[in-house]
Write a structure and sequence with these properties.
This is Peptidase. Keywords: Signal. InterPro entries: PepSY. It comes from Ramlibacter rhizophilus. With about 80 residues, the protein is α+β, with helices and mostly antiparallel strands. It has one domain: Nuclear Transport Factor 2, Chain: A. Helix content is about 30%, strand content about 30%. The chain is built from two helices and three strands. A three-stranded antiparallel β-sheet has the order 1-2-3, with helices on one face. The radius of gyration is 18 Å and the shape is elongated.
Length: about 80
Amino acid sequence: MKATLSLPALLLSALMLAATPAWAQLSRDEAAAAAQRATGGRVLQVEPAEQSGRRAWRVKVLTPRGEVRVILIDAEGGRPSR
């Protein structure tokens, strides 16, 4: 017996794919973890950003020295931007 998808199911699938941000190869949690590894601090906030035309995550971190730093994490490679 062959499984077939109905037209509404195909349209729903297409809409779900279109709604997914294509640039978000790195999740918000992965960006937070990368910033935490890079600074050794506590993550305060994570939001989408852009740097030099590339997608990134802007991560605000409280360092072990008590300083608040903003780290940009590349959304494709997961590395802190320089």
